[in-house]
Every structure is written in structure tokens, then in C-alpha cells.
Model the fold of this input.
Amino acid sequence: MPSGWGEGPRSFTAELTRFAETVPGAHLAPLVARMSRPLGVAVVGRRGVGRRTVEAALRLHGVRVVATEPDVRVVVIAEAFKPEDEALLGSDPGSTVMVLTKADVFGATRDGPLAAASRCAAEVAAATGIDVVVMVGLLATVAELDDELLGALRTLVAVPAELGSVDAFVTADHPLARAVRARLLDRLDRFGVAHALLALADGAAPAEVVTRLHELSNVDGVLAGLHRVAAPVGYRRVQRALAESRCLHARLGDDRLGEFLRSDALAMAVMTAAVDVVEAAGLTVDRGDDAGAHARRAVQWSRYARGPIDALHRACAADITRGSLRLLDRESGR
Done:
């Protein structure tokens, strides 16, 4: 997620930037700057839960982690949801993702620690109404395995070591030096070491081992959770920019700005931002690009707007309907 925003806000920003470059004066420059600012993510958590590891993992995967004025928040928890965690949720749970990290050491169960952590995450999500994603933060921070670590893992494939406990792995007699075994644990922990060994034993190349570790970490699930909560934030940013642009038009009387605000391209960008929101909520939008699809989509979302939904989804439905009718008009005029 290079910017963190969905397709709609990026498209809107591109249209606004192109227009601003064609008109004299700098009255649109502050607006373009605000719209171009990447998604800012604050990561918070009580002491000992692995907050810094989650921060490092998110940065490695292109997320802009900030200390102040975040757009969305990640609340890191471990083992269980505690009163101290609840105090960190803030006043806008809709822009918050909770990450249950250290999922690899969640507990010994028949179906493994990740399944147990997923069940706990589902319980916390049901109790709080907040998206909760499990993560093995340490594995998500592995950018590569250097020669020493790869050599150590290959030695362990040939000469297995005791992985039943940290002490047993480090202190037992083994051809691999204790310091190297300790470094392996520091970088991958026992869970990561075990799965790296399985991957190498199956013939995986070093890059494939790193990919496998990232898959186990579920960092992609965390990024998807961030996208889900960022979609409404991005849509609201687009709406604020539209309102500000209309105020500028009213104050300056610039006909070109008025034409831009009425343009099909801008309407399509706003519709796409609205689609980001409803799809992030699990709804399906017909992506067809013919007259029949445009008409069906307009009817569907016009009906949806009249249903028992919140103000955000009502506004999104109106923008999807409006954009679909624009597309239908364009198709009919060909």
C-alpha cells in the first residue's frame, strides 16, 4: 500500500493535481498538498505487547507510521484483550484496527497456536465491534535471511536440533554454534525456525523462505484491515476537498473551477471513492462498463440509499448512483 489510500482518493487527487497545474495562482496548492499526503498510521499498545515490532513490520511493507495526527490507528494487543487495551481504543473505533500479535506463542492447542489466536481475535472483535487481525509480528519484519542464518538453517535441516523449548534449542549439544542458534531465535523465534526448516527441506529458495515467513506472519491480513478502515477516511477526505473547492469557486467565481467540479472525470473519482467504502464493508458493486450495468447499478444503489443505513453509506450510495447515471448518459450519447 504505497499511499495507503484506495483507488478513489488517488484518482481524485490525480484529477485535482492535473487541474491545479493548468490554472494560474496557488489557491489550490494547499488542497492538493493535503490530498497528496500519504495515509498516516499510529501504532499504540501497552508495554510488552510488541508494538515496536508491529511498527517495524508496517514500515517494511510501505506503511507511513506517525506519532501525531494519524488517519487510522493500530492498537496492538497480546494474549488477551485487557482493560488497558480498551483505554487505547480512542473515540473513533471506525478508524481503528486491532492487531493480536505474538500469535505463534498463543498456546498449545490441537489445531495450533494460529487457530487459537484467530478464535480469540474473533471473540474480541465481537465484543468490541472493531476489526481484529492476528499477526506474528517478528516474522513480518524479516526482509531477508543473510548467509549466516541461511547456512545455520541448512545445517539444522541436515542435523535436526531440539525445538521443544528455547533452552533446549540453545544449550543442547549440536554442531551449530550456540551463538548462531541464539541469533536464529532472536530473528525468527522457534515458530519461524521450524517453518523455515520445513520450507528449505521442501527445496524452497531463500526468497521463497522469506515469502513463506511473511505469509505465516499474516502481515497481508493486517494491511487489508488497514485498507478497510482507511476507505471511509479517504472518502471523507475527498468530500472535504470537494466542499473546500466549491467554497473556492463561490468566492473566486472561476468558471474553469466550476467546470472542473462538474466534470465527468471528477464524478468518476468520487464514485470510485464511494465504491472503496462499500466494498471495504463487504458489499459487492457491479463493475460492468456497458449501458445495462450502469442502469442496474444506478437502480440498485438508489434503492440502497433509501434503506436503513448510516449517513456514510447513504452518501456513498448517492455518489455511486450519480456516477452510474453519468456513465449511462455518456454511453447513450455515443
About this structure: The mean pLDDT is 92.
